[in-house]
């Protein structure tokens, strides 16, 4: 029976991944900072250990078959690249090299679709596309890409698979993280949306892609885990249909968004944290679209309707409020 080590086990993706690995009969050791923060289901084959990414896992890894590195910092308010690099790149290097020294069979790194070049509906972004100039300026995407490039230089030492999810939705988004986009439009009388669009995917499809990559993934390859390309207007209209609501929809003018981005950059120069930045507001104005053809062909993936991802997220948020 395979044994897995999962970092970020108490996060949105990590929780769902632990559930699905356990459902398949695997033993899972999940790294968390605080066991009490784990919102998932406990299981006889699940061991939670408290620790930090820079801890020494050498002895533990000797008992593992696969290490799946999910943990990352995605906070958009951080002020400098070094802070992202420390967690998203340097910690990844340490965990990866420990896995090599401990003779782990396979290392799976969860990156982001934004280390690849996005496309339009007419020409979708693929694994062959180099990162666009816009995302080269994103500290988060840049730190993930630097980690990817490092891992690929040592793929001959350990089977190394990189998965690149797009924007995930679903249950167990307890912070919430990406699910905030649903809360922006759910039960609102006015919905303001940016002019661009992005690719959405069910978090369960991402966990399926990771699990399929364990046996089907080719070492040294990257796999986009992507599903539905939609404008933000289309997304919120779909949310309205699912929730049976009819708010007033107002598109935020591009120039207003860019002005807010300049304001965010000004705050950052004053060392004031802000989720606003010119890079982030520019990203909201583009068609950030991707293809999932490679994952379907190589990983035998099938994707659920994005309506299911939205419904699962809403059900989770509803039940979470009832429990409070």
UniProtKB/TrEMBL annotation:
SUPFAM superfamilies: NAD(P)-binding Rossmann-fold domains. It comes from the Bacteria. This is NAD-dependent epimerase/dehydratase family protein. Pfam families: Epimerase. Gene3D superfamilies: NAD(P)-binding Rossmann-like Domain (3.40.50.720). Residues 5-225 form the NAD-dependent epimerase/dehydratase domain.
């Amino acid at each position: 029976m395979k044994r897995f080590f999962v970092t970020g086990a108490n996060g949105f993706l990590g929780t769902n991944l632990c559930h699905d690995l356990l459902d398949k009969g695997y033993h899972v050791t999940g790294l968390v900072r605080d066991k009490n923060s784990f919102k998932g289901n406990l299981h006889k084959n699940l061991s939670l250990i408290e620790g930090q990414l820079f801890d020494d896992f050498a002895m533990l890894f000797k008992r593992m078959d696969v290490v799946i590195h999910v943990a990352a910092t995605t906070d958009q308010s951080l002020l400098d690249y070094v802070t992202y690099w420390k967690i998203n790149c340097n910690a990844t290097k340490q965990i990866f090299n420990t896995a090599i020294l401990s003779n782990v069979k396979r290392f799976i790194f969860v990156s982001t679709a934004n280390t690849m070049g996005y496309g339009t509906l007419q020409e979708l972004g693929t694994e062959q596309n180099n990162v666009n100039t816009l995302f080269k300026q994103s500290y988060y995407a840049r730190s993930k890409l630097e980690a990817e490039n490092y891992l690929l230089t040592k793929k001959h030492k350990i089977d190394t698979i990189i998965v690149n999810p797009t924007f995930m939705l679903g249950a167990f988004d307890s912070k919430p993280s990406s699910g905030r986009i649903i809360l922006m439009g759910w039960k609102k009388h006015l919905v303001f949306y940016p002019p661009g669009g992005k690719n959405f995917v069910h978090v369960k499809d991402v966990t399926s892609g990771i699990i399929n990559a364990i046996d089907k993934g080719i070492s040294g390859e990257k796999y986009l885990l992507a599903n539905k390309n939609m404008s933000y207007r289309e997304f919120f209209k779909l949310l309205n249909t699912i929730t049976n609501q009819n708010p007033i929809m107002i598109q935020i003018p591009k120039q207003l968004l860019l002005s807010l981005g300049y304001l965010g950059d000004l705050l950052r120069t004053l060392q004031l944290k802000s989720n606003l930045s010119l890079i982030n507001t520019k990203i909201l104005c583009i068609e950030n679209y991707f293809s999932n053809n490679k994952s379907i062909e190589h990983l035998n993936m099938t994707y659920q309707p994005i309506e299911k991802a939205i419904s699962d997220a809403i059900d989770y948020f509803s039940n979470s409020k009832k429990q409070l």
